[in-house]
Amino acid sequence: MGAFFVASFPENSEKEPEVKVFYSAEMDGLDKDGKHVEVKTQFKNLFIGRFFEKKAMKWYIQSKLVGIDGMTFFCLLKT
């Protein structure tokens, strides 16, 4: 499902000029309250080196920009 968003930066500041950003995002679904839901999946190699830190930051930024408060994560570890 696609969605369009507008964000203003900086938020709640009168001293700096406001910049508005218009962007689109693909959303995974809606919860029972109509809020956007994000589901992330990963196949192995997630906890090797700094890979998880970089991936988690990317996921956080993507979700924060579209107003998602939490996300569900699934990791398939092949044994």
From TrEMBL:
Top-rank taxon, per record: Eukaryota
The species this protein was found in: Panagrolaimus sp. PS1159
The name this protein goes by in its record: RAI1-like domain-containing protein
